[in-house]
Amino acid sequence: MDLRRWWYFAVLAEEMNFTRAAQRLFISQPSLSQQIRVLEREFDTALLDRDGPRFRLTEAGRVAAEEARRLLEKVDRAQAKVRAAGRGETGRLRVAHTRSAPGPRASALVAAFRRCHPEVAIEAETGWTSRNVEQLESGEIDVAFVRPPIDSALLEEVIVDEEEILIALPAAHPLAEFERLERRQLAGEPVVFWSRDNGPGWYDQIREQVWPGHQPTVVWEEPDDEQLLHSVAAAAGIAAVPEHRARGLNVAGVALLRLADPVPRTHLALAYRRGEHNPLVANFVALARREPAVPPGQ
């Protein structure tokens, strides 16, 4: 059944006058009359009582007018939903966080997106950079927070935050008495690190900034920063950690010190698929580019 005829009949039922209804519909009166008769044949029942100087709605016509109104309201809602989805205002966005950066910037971006797009359902999960990159490449997630640099021809990234890398030491360590550490003071110290497989580019970036020119003496590996700091507290070694995460965890028995210039820094990036056409992703990336970054140390 042609939806247009439902619309014609709904307007006619409101106006109860063929001339006015035809004017509203921008069609001729004979065309409107013909379409209403076609609709009656499709229903196999009369919708109008044409006896007398003015037509009236039959009982079937009153039901048809009410159903036409409801049907057209549903169509309007459906059109609005489709258009909103096309603008990236509804739907589902799958976001992956990285365990090393649960801090203010990532959370603030997601919260800002929720405020701007309250009809969008956000599905969030937490992984590590390498895993997030793999899931993003395979299409399992839509956007991901990662620690750059990443090595992927399929992805693009936008830097959204920067923070300082601190040195975590056991609280009783002799170096904990210093205000700032020189890199030469770290030479030979046992180091606790997480696996390079979690984020090769980030691992190498930290190593090159903190232990330039040589490999650190890694004596133990932990899966994430929390376990790493607990190992430091147990005097297994020292560690290089991002400031937001380290201060947020606040592990007892750990002293956090800054390094002398050049101050080592790390970034947080939002990664997404190159050439992505999903408007939700476009809106999230645009927000990440537009929102001011949280100042380092905040």
Automatic annotation (TrEMBL):
InterPro entries: LysR_HTH_N, LysR_subst-bd, WH-like_DNA-bd_sf, WH_DNA-bd_sf. Residues 1-58 form the HTH lysR-type domain. Pfam families: HTH_1, LysR_substrate. It comes from the Bacteria. Keywords: DNA-binding, Transcription, Transcription regulation. Belongs to the LysR transcriptional regulatory family. This is LysR family transcriptional regulator. It comes from Amycolatopsis rubida.
